[in-house]
Write the structure tokens for this entry.
Amino acid sequence: MGMLERGGVPYFEDRAIKRSQLLYDLIDNSGGFYRTFVTDPKFRSRMQVVFTIRSGAGDDLGLVEKFLTETNDELGWLDIRSHPLGLPSDAIRVTMYNHQPLETIEVVREYMHQFQKKHG
């Protein structure tokens, strides 16, 4: 089934908003455990959610590296990568292109929730 048969741009825009909002809601309500660099919702990407853990530097860098190792190496999630922002900290990027169903991002969100409970 093609894009037009699924509802065209409005359908995929709605999906992108729902997927990204799942992660931004968790980040915004994490009490600072997760931090995004774009705080104004109107400028936030719907395709790539970029964030770090606490400061992303010093001891917190170890948590960022652990998150990336677990999601990439142990879980095999290919759409979660380190994102070089030119900052003294490292960042995590979750890529959510049109092919990904909402359920996939719900799994990522649950992992993030459990990671925070374990390391927060």
